[in-house]
Specification:
heterodimer, A: 5 strands, B: alpha+beta, Immunoglobulin-like, five-stranded antiparallel β-sheet
Chain lengths: ~850, ~425
């Protein structure tokens, strides 16, 4: 509706009428015309109505004229009626008492002989949103759904949804969902069908958490019969309705491969549709249907390439932006996909910077041995050419590519050329990159240091860049003749240095330098420690104190701490877990992809789509009152469980496969570390096999900082679980989102176990006996899904979280374990397996 | 939920709400306005902000057209591509109604705008965005008394994009084959990217329910028909059709058959990624004499057959932003300094194939520059042109048949044109 009656202070600009006198004037005129049947009366009414509407639009409260407007509404002129509906719709919610006045004429109009008026009146009636008027809605809606005109039926279908949002009970009491269902299957008009579809989808999605029946209803929306019915009519739908249908089909779980191919053949031509949204929706269907068939899935990628590239290149920049976000997601899953089409992602001069930014990300993601040279050449072009933020981004992109590649020879040269360009922001960005490069490829230090040594620290102002420069000065002070003196002058200006980050690095660099060139640095180090001890920043102060005491204690120990032999960092930590990426992929073709976040992170609960897996955990927070008690969630709907388990079974090559492989050989897991997936690797990269597997980010940071290496015991202690472990669902959900999968494995279930698993409760009770608690479960034979957790008995609180999908027909359980302390998860898994093997036996 | 949006806003250039339609009652206009005005104020250059922004639980998606922003607000996880596309369709519909969509035309037509917003979207779900169909039941001239309104015929029709009972005295079809050439050349004069995007634009003025059939020299089609392809056939990369085209038939035997909508529409678009010879080639030599002056010598060459002629050629050459005192000579056309674009714009009205023209320009530069001057934005040389009666891909319309049951004779008119798309040469 138009703006609600604006608060009075939203003052109209001086040119607009101030309101009050105008409104009373209008009222008077309207009253005069109300009863008039004189020729031309309608004309003058129109002028008046138009004025009312424009006042309303610019924010003047004209609700005072409500009764006059209603009085004038008795007319056969459709234009007047439309304006009147508009007015009524705008003010009814704030003036429910007045809204009652309109019911009469709206109801009457719902029986008008003109279908146009019937439709409009019905729409207005449903849009009043006044709870105490719902009783007047039911009869006209019922009639509307049976109306001879498709226009009225179309409006009525949406009207049901509006009614549902005002009063769900009334909607169900009148049995409208059932009517819609039959309408959806029989109506000759495609738009009516489409409207019924989204109305039912929305209603059942929202209801599914509340009743079994509703979730069953929602399941039937995904039944083969309905999906095929809609697909067969797909050409009758308009483009937006097609998107709707395709969205539904993407959730459909095909029964066999013939099913999949039938659907794909039918939809093949949709990839040629002029509307990009239809194309993208079709792509989603293709991708999701073929998840289980690796080779076909690959063919799908090939097939969708051309349409996607066209969508990027043609159409509005907004469209390019949205499509590029999707491409980025796809490239993460199939890196080779666009590697030969990299030229499509070259930036145009006229591209808006939000498109350029995504294009740079794409170029970074698709760079491989074959195209790196061209891509980096192009990126270097941007570094000098275009606006500063993009120039920065492109330098960063070059750096990222360098970190991905094995052959960095040429790239290092380029980066060093950047340093010679002598533009402050270029130098700043490049320094940061050179630092990261050196951490990964120490063998390049010689070339880099020569160039870095020439940079005057006065030209570097940005804290990040300055910190990077200082790090290099400390780390490679033996190769840089000036290093101690540069550090010294930096330390002299200690008080002018605002960023704590820089001061911290300065301390460490002074220490490092001291051990390499003691006589030259001694004075500087003393000054640095003194300044650090007097520093007001807590971290700086603490670090200075730490170094000071360390030196006091034993200089050779201090040297070992500060300058240990360092291992090159092989992989930098990935910021996003593959779990989250999978979830985003499930929500392909939605905002999730644009934000690179699953929807539960940015939508309110009531606006979420319960289809996704995350919602299931989200539901858990409902059960706050029964914390700790193993509690079964009927609400977590079966089809949901099925669909997620299906998807995870077919999870695609890069879900967590390699990690599982790495851990699946328990007796010798030190050596298997080598073959870890990048994700797991990133967490354990620093700690070599002889070290305790404390993989938290914190330790990593300190290791990194000081190169600390502490010898420790290898064997993990045998695991005891806390029988009274408590974890509230909110925490569970958060942890599940944060932690990485430490174990993902299949195990089999004994035949007795299968026999005993008739309901989820049986297993839940059994697991409780082994101190493994269930936080949520669901499913029906043969598919069950459980979320378990357990807590370590002694030591700091450490939780194990576990997702377990059991298929009784194949007697297999799929297990994913996440743990606060990933090193103990093997032991936990063993414990779980032994408990599982006893299930049904006892 | 397939992601319904909560409201649609039309905002002025400063981000203030002109009109809005609240579909679901869960967002507030005041909040949206406050958020959006802040957004564009902060950015100054709104281009740098992505068209999807998240704030306080609400996803805002917007596009700009002239001095109007169109924005949706959604609380659900809606479909970004389709909503952004929908907004562009809304622009098209408004353009159809008001000729131009701008603040003024919206202010003058509040009532129609409300009506349109109501029919294009219901409860946040897109409904109809075909201007032709909407105009059948929402008429601007409906404010005269005598026009009677009927419910949308096409809504119930099997052919949703065309109404029955259309009559023309003279039955005509205009088909424009428009190709735009996108080229990117680096500073060494190498083509690093080139492709062609083509569109078949149609305007139909035909009575009744005509069946049309279009034949192209599409290689796959010709091969399917067993004809020899003597170098005349072309490979089209990624073809997209208007919804009226029977895609199944195209899949089977590559014939393009359709019942056209009334009026103007894009029948088909395609892309060609095979490298083409750039129709207009530019070479530039720039000499900087210390900090006092800059000399440019530019050569432009047409690399197409002599019987074609490029028209409205416009070559935009970047010059330093502090250049003054231009002195320009050209062997053809006229060149002028456009300081507002930091460019020298050389215009040639008619540029026949196989010719070469020159342009010399000299600018004075101030001898003093600020120490820490902002880095220069180096822009590429950009070229605009049109070449009528010529398609760079070689696509040809072999026939356009129109069959209607009343048996009238319709006249098809076909035109070809090639123009510059993103045509950039990073020469300087």
């Amino acid at each position: 509706m138009a703006p609600p009656p604006a608060p009075p202070q939203k003052s109209p600009s001086p040119s607009q009428p101030s309101g009050k006198s105008e409104v009373s004037d209008l009222k008077l005129q309207l009253r005069q015309l109300a009863g008039s049947r004189a020729p031309g009366a309608d004309d003058s009414k129109r002028d008046l109505f138009k004025r009312v509407i424009s006042y309303m639009t610019v924010g003047i409260d004209v609700s005072a004229a409500f009764s006059e407007m209603v009085m004038c509404s008795a007319t056969s002129d459709i234009v007047l009626k439309k304006m009147c509906y508009l007015y009524v719709g705008n003010y009814a919610r704030c003036h429910p008492d007045l809204a009652l006045l309109t019911i009469n004429f709206l109801q009457k109009d719902c029986h008008d002989e003109d279908p146009m008026i019937r439709g409009l009146a019905l729409r207005s009636l449903c849009s009043l949103r006044v709870p105490n008027l719902v009783e007047y809605l039911v009869a006209p809606l019922g009639a509307g759904l049976k109306d001879g005109s498709s226009y009225v039926r179309m409006v009525a279908a949406v009207g049901v949804l509006k009614l549902y949002h005002i009063s769900a009970a009334t909607c169900f009491d009148s049995d409208f969902p059932a009517v819609l269902k039959s309408l959806m299957l029989t109506d000759p008009d495609a738009q009516v069908v489409a409207n019924c579809l989204f109305v039912l989808q929305e209603i059942w999605n929202l209801e599914a958490n509340k009743s079994e029946e509703a979730s069953r209803e929602r399941e039937t929306l995904l039944s083969k019969k309905l999906v095929y019915y809609l697909l067969n009519r797909i050409k009758e739908f308009n483009e937006w309705a097609q998107c709707l249908v395709l969205e539904l089909v993407a959730k459909y779980i095909p029964s066999d491969s013939d099913d999949i191919f039938d659907i794909m053949n039918l939809l093949e031509d949709r990839l040629q549709h002029a509307n990009g949204a239809v194309v993208l929706a079709t792509i989603k269907v293709f991708l999701h249907l073929t998840m289980s068939m690796t080779d076909v899935h690959q063919q799908v990628y090939e097939r969708i390439k051309a349409p996607l590239l066209t969508l990027v290149g043609s159409g509005s920049s907004e469209q390019s932006y949205a499509v590029l976000s999707h491409l980025h997601l796809l490239v993460m899953r199939a890196p080779m996909l666009f590697s030969s089409d990299y030229k499509h992602f070259y930036c145009q001069f006229s591209d808006p910077s939000y498109v350029k930014k995504l294009k740079l990300e794409m170029l970074t993601a698709i760079a491989n041995e074959s195209n790196t040279y061209e891509i980096v050449t192009e990126l270097c072009e941007y570094a000098g050419n275009v606006d500063v933020p993009i120039a920065r981004e492109s330098i960063r992109a070059v750096g990222k590519i360098a970190l991905q590649q094995y052959d960095v020879n040429a790239i290092v040269d380029r980066l060093l050329q950047f340093l010679e360009m002598e533009k402050d922001y270029v130098t700043a960005e490049t320094l940061v990159l050179v630092k990261d490069l050196l951490r990964k490829y120490p063998q390049w230090s010689h070339d880099c240091i020569a160039v870095v040594g020439n940079i005057s620290s006065k030209n570097v102002q940005e804290p990040k860049a300055k910190a990077a420069l200082i790090w290099m000065l400390g780390e490679y002070s033996q190769d840089m003749p000036d290093a101690p003196y540069i550090l010294e002058s930096l330390i002299e200006n200690w008080d002018e240095e605002n960023a704590a980050e820089v001061r911290l690095h300065l301390l460490t660099a002074a220490m490092k330098c001291f051990f390499k060139r003691p006589p030259e640095t001694q004075k500087a180090l003393g000054a640095a420690l003194a300044a650090g001890l007097a520093d007001s920043h807590q971290d700086v102060h603490d670090r200075a104190l730490f170094y000071y005491r360390l030196l006091q204690y034993d200089v050779s120990v201090a040297e070992r701490v500060v300058n240990p032999p360092k291992q090159a960092v092989s992989v930098f930590a990935d910021t996003q877990s593959s779990e989250i990426k999978d979830r985003i992929f499930d929500e392909f073709n939605s905002l999730s992809v644009v934000y690179q976040k699953p929807s539960y992170m940015f939508t309110d609960k009531e606006h979420r789509e319960p289809f996704e897996f995350s919602e299931e955990i989200g539901n858990l927070s409902l059960g706050q009152e029964s914390v700790g008690n193993a509690r079964r969630y009927d609400e977590s709907d079966k089809d949901l469980l099925l669909s997620t388990s299906e998807r995870e079974e077919n999870g695609g090559p890069n879900t967590n496969g390699p990690a599982a492989a790495g851990y699946s050989a328990p007796p010798d897991y030190n050596s298997s570390l080598v073959s870890l997936s990048s994700q797991t690797q990133s967490e354990t990269a620093i700690s070599d096999p002889g070290m305790p597997k404390h993989t938290s980010q914190m330790t990593l940071a300190i290791d990194d900082l000081l190169g600390l290496s502490v010898p420790a015991a290898l064997a993990p202690p045998s695991l005891k679980l806390n029988p009274k472990a408590v974890l509230d669902p909110g925490t569970f959900q958060r942890k599940w989102g944060q932690l990485a999968v430490s174990i993902s494995q299949d195990c089999s279930i004994s035949p007795q176990g299968v026999a005993a698993l008739t309901t989820p409760q049986a297993l839940i009770r059994h697991m409780q006996a082994s101190s493994i608690q269930c936080i949520a479960s669901g499913g029906q034979s043969p598919n069950f899904k459980f979320f378990f957790f357990a807590q370590k008995l002694d030591g700091p609180p450490s939780f194990f979280l576990m997702e377990c999908i059991i298929n009784t027909s194949s007697a297999k359980a799929q297990v994913k374990i996440k743990a606060d302390d990933a090193t103990a998860s093997e032991a936990f898994f063993a414990l779980f397996q032994s408990a599982l093997s006893k299930f049904g036996v006892l | 939920m397939a992601g319904a949006v909560s409201a649609l806003f039309l905002l002025d250039i400063k981000g203030r709400v002109l009109i809005w339609r609240d579909y679901r009652g869960d967002v507030s206009a005041v909040q949206a306005e406050r958020f959006f005005t802040k957004l564009i104020e902060k950015e100054g250059d709104h281009e740098s902000h992505s068209p999807v922004v998240f704030d306080d639980g609400i996803s805002y998606m917007f596009i700009q057209h002239n001095n109007v922003f169109l924005m949706t607000a959604a609380r659900q996880n809606s479909n970004a591509v389709s909503i952004l596309l929908f907004l562009h369709r809304v622009v098209d519909v408004f353009k159809h109604y008001f000729v131009e969509l701008e603040e003024e035309s919206l202010r003058d037509n509040f009532v129609v705008v409300y009506e349109l917003l109501d029919e294009m979207m219901d409860f946040g779900y897109p409904q109809y965005t075909e201007a032709k169909i909407l105009s059948e039941f929402i008429k601007t001239d409906a404010y005269r008394m005598e026009v009677t309104q009927r419910p949308p015929m096409a809504v119930t029709n099997a052919v949703s994009w065309r109404s029955e009972g259309i009559r023309y005295k003279k039955n005509e079809v205009f088909l424009d084959v428009v190709e735009s050439v996108n080229i990117l050349v680096n500073s060494n004069g190498q083509i690093i990217r080139s492709d062609v995007v083509g569109a078949l634009k149609m305007r139909t003025y035909l009575s009744g329910m005509p069946e049309c059939k279009l034949g192209l020299n599409d290689r796959l089609l010709l091969e399917a028909q067993g004809r020899t392809t003597k170098g005349k056939a072309i490979d089209l990369d990624d073809i997209k059709f208007h919804q009226c085209v029977r895609l199944a038939r195209f899949e089977n035997d590559r014939t393009i058959s359709f019942i056209p909508p009334d009026g103007a529409f894009d029948l088909m678009t395609y892309r060609l990624s095979t490298q083409v010879k750039p129709p207009i080639w530019v070479e530039a030599q720039v000499e900087r004499h210390s900090r006092s002056r800059i000399e440019m010598m530019v050569k432009a060459r047409s690399q197409f057959k002599e019987r074609s002629t490029a028209t409205s050629v416009e070559i935009e050459l970047p010059v330093p932003s502090d250049a003054t005192n231009p002195s320009i000579r050209t062997s053809m056309g006229s060149a002028a300094y456009a300081p507002e674009h930091d460019a020298l714009v050389w215009k040639i009205k008619s540029f026949p194939g196989g010719k070469e023209y020159m342009c010399r320009a000299e600018f004075t530069l101030p001898s003093i520059t600020a120490e820490d001057a902002i880095p220069e934005r180096k822009a590429p040389v950009r070229v605009k042109f049109e070449i009528p009666y010529f398609t760079i891909s070689g696509i040809q319309v072999r026939y356009l048949k129109i069959i209607e049951k009343s048996g009238y004779q319709a006249l098809p008119w076909v035109r070809y044109i090639t123009m510059a798309g993103e045509y950039e040469l990073r020469l300087i």
